[in-house]
Amino acid sequence: MNIELITIPKIEDPRGNLSVIENDIVPFDIKRVYYLYDVPAGAERGGHAHKKLQQFLVALSGSFEVVLNDGNDEQIITLNKPFEGILIKSGIWRELKNFSSGAVCLVVASEVFDEEDYIRDFKDFVEFKSI
């Protein structure tokens, strides 16, 4: 599957740890950063794929599951460390679920928002992958 679990360097200090995400961590120029928080119990996010955009997801606080599908196989990854993230390349369906209370999901993206880049229906995604 076109994903990669990446450890973010951690600078440890008795006053608190520090991690930095720069272009040497992700293999793309960072064009957009956003985060999900206050996700209600039982709610799911994502539910789409991208034709071009790549994303790097990190659980800054708490935990959540990332369900990934490449059109043939499905994989579930739990993110729960603020120094570890998942790189999701283009052409991968993603769903985020089972958010713990207080979870914060940071998303670093390779492109600015473009609705035309989204595939929001799973049947359309499977068809896109078969082309």
What's the Cα radius of gyration? 15 Å
Question: Average pLDDT across residues?
Answer: 96
CATH topology: Jelly Rolls
Q: Considering the protein shown, what is the CATH homologous superfamily? A: Jelly Rolls
Structural features, described:
By secondary structure, this protein is mainly β. The chain has a single domain (3-7, 28-129), classed as Jelly Rolls (Sandwich), CATH 2.60.120. Helices cover 6% and strands 44% of the residues. It has 1 helix and 12 strands. It has one helix at 122-129; strands spanning 3-7, 10-11, 18-19, 32-37, 45-50, 55-61, 64-69, 74-79, 84-88, 93-97, 104-109, 118-119. A 5-stranded antiparallel sheet has the order 1-9-6-11-4, with no helix packed on it. A 5-stranded antiparallel sheet has the order 8-7-10-5-12. Strands 2-3 form a two-stranded antiparallel sheet. The chain starts with a strand and ends with a helix. The model has no long low-confidence stretch (mean pLDDT 96).
